[in-house]
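Problem 3 from the worked examples.
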Amino acid sequence: MTFLWPVRVYYEDTDSGGVVYYANYLKFMERARSEWLRSLGLEQDQLIDEFGVMFAVRSVTLDYRAPARFNDALEVSVMPLKKGRASLIFEQQVVRHGVDTRQPQLLCEGQIKIACLDSRTLRPRPIPDSVYAEITCEH
């Protein structure tokens, strides 16, 4: 059930040392989670318009292993670890496929907890049943 999303490192993603700025790994992971939702037929704006919910990051734990650099081709994985009625926990990794070796190099990994919120009040609420069914593949 691991979803993979390719990301290219642009100049704007790097710091003055020419490596990816640490906070940009969170952006890469966010994009991959959005694309994971899209692959399930769910759009962020649709969740607000049709269901009155939105997903927001509740907590993040990251471990940085090696730097990515300008123009690297990366792959970001999204793997749901735990699905509660009002939250989701994901394991995510950012890897660079090796130029010198055939093995991908792990650059960053973490766990991201996402909460389901009422889009008007921003208070936690259960994930709507039809959305939950898509996320958990309970068709």
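Problem 4, a separate protein:
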Amino acid sequence: MVRYFFEDIKFEYKNRLFNNRWLKMVAESEICRLGDLNVIFCSDPYILDINIKYLGHDYFTDIITFDYSRKPLISGDLFISIDSVRENSQFYGTEFQEELHRVIVHGVLHLIGYDDHAESDIAVMRSKEDYYLKLRKGLSGDK
């Protein structure tokens, strides 16, 4: 089950049921099942606090993923900074919604087991993100 939460920001996320079906499809395409997934939308200061407190990193990021998976069942918390997603969409010249969905699927790919520390891992992760974003666009009902 996918649940959506909003911490310290005013933000509306539409098409949740469609997004849930898409994420379920992503998991199943990777031979996993979608368990409990919490998507928590927040601000830069909120995610920075989490990054410092729980990971010991003193920098901003667009997403922090906490993995509670027991493969093949994937579960976790995705903390997503709406501020950083907006900045990234401007920097990369993408639509905000596309960048937001890229970050969401990025977190799900981490839960599945993909990493992005080495250059080769980053290339695989980006390829997977692109594939699932294209698949999302092809599904009826995407807005």
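Solution to problem 4. The first helix runs from residue 16 to 29. The helical segments are 16-29, 44-55, 82-92, 96-112, 119-138.
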